[in-house]
């Protein structure tokens, strides 16, 4: 099952249209190539509608947003919606400034977003809870399962909250993924790339929760494998890209940790 999605991805080489931030553009393109997808960054209002139409997934990331870029994201998102192309929103830094928060909310208002992927602070602020966000990083501990469920219901969409433990939910079914490695927090854009990788899995798997949980687990196991070869951020980043490309499938099957919880239960 998991194997099939990755093989499908490598066979299909889906086109992933990213409107993303200036920090992570190169890393995101390399990471998408590594998993077998085909990245394109296209930001201009003049072309985003056309690009979104031919894409297999659209990823909207507000990391270094400008008003023009938010307008372009809405054009791209609407065009993707018309063409039945899945849309991922990465609400980078929501809660840090009012511009980020209001822009993300405007995108959610105007675009039918397939899944939101962010850290706990970003999702909490998006859902209207005032949690402190330090730039693009979360501070403190949050109850991610309950927060994800609340946000999924509020925005009537799927939510992935990532961190030490990752949670994916549509408001009813909940999954927890416990793969990953702390070195992922020492390389910029690992969350941003994960949002794009979720887009790539959505291009080959229609079930959103399956696509997202598989993508997050695959990504986390790749990080665990990379961390066995390097314990510093620079070499880890390179080894991680290699593992995304060449993850041993037997290791993935053995190390993948996805567990299911149900709505209303306090524990998984
Ligand atoms: N303490 C941790 N231990 C293991 N894995 C982690 C830890 N923190 C984050 N991760 C993993 O790192 C990846 C990125 O998630 P994170 O929540 O850090 O994104 P983010 O805050 O949006 O990052 P960025 O803004 O740098 O793109 C995910 O795969 C997540 O599972
Ligand atoms: C560091 C940083 N600042 C804006 S976007 C970004 C990339 C990771 O979120
Ligand atoms: Mg982020």
UniProtKB/TrEMBL annotation:
Keywords in alphabetical order: ATP-binding, Kinase, Magnesium, Metal-binding, Nucleotide-binding, Thiamine biosynthesis, Transferase
Chemical reaction(s) catalysed: 5-(2-hydroxyethyl)-4-methylthiazole + ATP = 4-methyl-5-(2-phosphooxyethyl)-thiazole + ADP + H(+)
Top enzyme class: transferase
Residues spanning the signal sequence: none
GO cellular component: cytosol
Cofactor (UniProt): Mg(2+)
Pathway: Cofactor biosynthesis; thiamine diphosphate biosynthesis; 4-methyl-5-(2-phosphoethyl)-thiazole from 5-(2-hydroxyethyl)-4-methylthiazole: step 1/1
Binding residues annotated for substrate, in chain numbering: 41, 189
InterPro entries: Hyethyz_kinase, Ribokinase-like
EC number: 2.7.1.50
Pfam families according to UniProt: HK
UniProt: ATP binding residues: 117, 162
Gene Ontology terms for molecular function: ATP binding; hydroxyethylthiazole kinase activity; hydroxymethylpyrimidine kinase activity; magnesium ion binding; phosphomethylpyrimidine kinase activity
GO biological process: thiamine biosynthetic process; thiamine diphosphate biosynthetic process
Main function: Catalyzes the phosphorylation of the hydroxyl group of 4-methyl-5-beta-hydroxyethylthiazole (THZ).
NCBIfam families attached to this UniProt entry: PRK09355.1 (NF006830), thiM (TIGR00694)
Similarity-based family: Belongs to the Thz kinase family.
Protein name, UniProt field: Hydroxyethylthiazole kinase
Lineage: Bacteria, Bacillati, Bacillota, Bacilli, Bacillales
């Amino acid at each position: 099952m998991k194997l099939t999605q990755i093989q499908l991805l490598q066979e299909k080489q889906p086109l992933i249209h990213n409107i993303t931030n200036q920090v992570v553009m190169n890393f995101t393109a390399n990471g998408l190539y590594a998993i077998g997808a085909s990245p394109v960054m296209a930001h201009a209002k003049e072309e985003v509608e056309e690009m979104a139409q031919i894409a297999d997934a659209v990823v909207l990331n507000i990391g270094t947003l400008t008003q023009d870029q938010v307008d372009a994201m809405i054009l791209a998102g609407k065009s993707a919606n018309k063409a039945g192309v899945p849309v991922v929103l990465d609400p980078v830094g929501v809660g840090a400034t009012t511009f980020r928060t209001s822009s993300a909310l405007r995108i959610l208002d105007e675009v039918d977003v397939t899944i939101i992927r962010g850290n706990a602070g970003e999702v909490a602020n998006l859902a209207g809870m005032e949690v402190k966000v330090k730039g693009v990083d979360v501070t403190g501990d949050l109850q991610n399962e309950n927060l994800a469920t609340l946000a999924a219901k509020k925005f009537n969409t799927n939510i992935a909250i990532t961190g030490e433990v990752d949670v994916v939910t549509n408001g009813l079914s909940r999954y927890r993924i416990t793969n990953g490695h702390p070195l992922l927090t020492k390389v910029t854009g690992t969350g941003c790339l994960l949002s794009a990788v979720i887009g790539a899995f959505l291009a080959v798997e229609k079930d959103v929760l399956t696509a997202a949980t598989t993508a997050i687990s695959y990504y986390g196991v790749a990080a665990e494998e990379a961390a066995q070869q390097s314990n510093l951020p620079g070499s880890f980043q390179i080894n991680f890209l290699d593992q995304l490309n060449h993850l041993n499938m037997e290791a993935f099957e053995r190390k993948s940790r996805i567990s299911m919880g149900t709505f209303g239960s306090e524990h998984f």
